[in-house]
Amino acid sequence: MKASICMATYDRPEVLRKTLASIRSQQADFDYEIIIVDDAGPQSAKEVCRQYAATYFRIDREPKYRNPSVARNLAYKMAVGDVLICMSDDVIMGAGSLQRLVNELQQGEFLLATVWNVDSDGDTRGLEGWPHIQQLTGPKNMRPLFFLGSIRRKDMYAVGGCDEEFTEPGREDIWLGDCLIHGLGLRPTFEDMLGYHQEHKRPVNLVASYQSSMELYKQKVSTAKQGLTPWRGGEPWPYLPCPPATTPIRSR
Question: What spatial distance separates the first Cα and last Cα of the chain, rounded to whole Å?
Answer without folding.
Answer: 14
